[in-house]
Design goal:
mainly beta; Cathepsin D, subunit A, domain 1; 7-stranded mixed β-sheet; 3 helices
């Protein structure tokens, strides 16, 4: 039986880089790489050290979605993703199957990643099929959640393919699509800088 204890964090997805503007817009995220090769993201250009500003790239998070060619061209080993609290939780925005954006809670106490039924429907997963199930302890007792296979989950440009996920409505907030469990997180060295509101991920 899988029990779920949560550690909540939030981030923004890596999208298409552009040029650094003289004026920052609320929809823009800025990407820069430090001397150690770590990729950083921020929505405030004043957070970028001066010596890196001339090499900063702008990411337009709303106007321009990433193309599949650009996503496949990413070869990152480590990223730093800005965090943002949402109500009582903090969530990370991810891309499912290289096409669907979704918000996930990060749960270091959960063995499996979970997605909501609405997210499964958006991914065109037919839950009427017979899937293997796994018991999960919830506040309302034990539930048998179907286990499905996701083609991929990507956070900040780092991707895990062929990931098993359980389908269950964990959160009442429909804007949250599920949670990221250890079968995703264990692929990376994970560090959460709460003081700077940054999530660091590095491939193992």
């Amino acid at each position: 039986m899988v029990r779920s204890s949560t550690l909540w964090v939030v981030g923004l997805i890596l999208l298409i880089p552009g040029n650094l503007p003289s004026t920052a817009f609320s929809a823009d995220i800025f990407r820069w790489v430090d001397d150690q090769g770590v990729v950083h993201f921020t929505d405030n250009p004043h957070n970028i050290p001066g010596k890196f500003r001339s090499h900063t790239e702008r990411i337009k998070t709303r106007e321009t979605p990433p193309s599949q060619d650009q996503l496949k061209g990413l070869s990152l080993d480590k990223v730093s993703v800005p965090l943002q609290k949402q109500g009582e939780v903090v969530v990370v925005q991810a891309t499912l199957n290289e096409r669907t954006e979704a918000k996930f809670v990060v749960d270091t106490g959960a063995s499996y990643t979970m997605i909501s039924r609405a997210t499964a429907k958006e991914l065109e997963i037919d839950l009427g099929q017979k899937f293997p199930t796994l018991p999960f302890q919830t506040a309302n007792g034990v539930v048998q959640a179907p286990l499905i296979k996701l083609d991929s989950i990507e956070v900040g440009g780092l991707q895990v393919r062929n990931l098993t996920a359980a389908v269950h409505d964990v959160f009442p907030d429909p804007s949250i699509s599920g949670l990221l469990g250890l079968n995703f997180l264990s692929n990376f060295r994970l560090d959460i800088d709460t003081a700077k509101s940054v999530l660091h991920l590095e491939k193992k």
